[in-house]
Amino acid sequence: MINAETAGIIVMLIGLYGLISKENPIKQVLSINVVSLGLILFFIGAGYVEGGDFPIMPSNPVDPLPATLMLTTLVVDVAITALALAMILRNGGEWA
């Protein structure tokens, strides 16, 4: 079975391929989003602890920092995507 880190790397490579191969700016922005989602999947998988408890339990705690940082990354990613798409539409779109 594939783990989250490997799936994240595969998703990042798919997004990188789309970023390199596409000339349409909207498709490039979407490819950047795919790369970002792959990175988030990678870090969430890296922060996973098998059999971990809540951070307030003393036995085998899971670090909540990776999940918190990736949630913040998702919010920033949405804002950057909106800004990039607005700039593309403002410049005429170039729907090639």
Q: Could you characterize the architecture of this molecule?
A:
Helices cover 69% and strands 0% of the residues. By secondary structure, the protein is mainly alpha-helical. It has a single domain, classed as Helix Hairpins (Orthogonal Bundle), CATH 1.10.287. Helix 1 (4-21) packs antiparallel against helix 2 (25-46) and helix 2 runs antiparallel to helix 3 (65-90). It starts with a helix and ends in a 6-residue tail after the last helix.
Please sum up the structure shown.
The chain is mostly helical and 96 residues long.
Based on CA atoms alone, the radius of gyration comes out at: 17 Å
User: Largest sheet, described in full?
Assistant: none
Q: Compute the number of strand runs.
A: 0
Report the CATH architecture: Orthogonal Bundle
Secondary structure: helix percent = 55-70%
Measured between the Cα atoms of the first and last residue, the distance is: 40 Å
Assigned CATH class: Mainly Alpha
Task: Furnish the topology, listing elements before pairings.
Layout: H1 4-21, H2 25-46, H3 65-90
Helix pairs in contact: 1-2, 2-3
Tag the structure with descriptive keywords:
96 residues; mainly alpha; Helix Hairpins; elongated
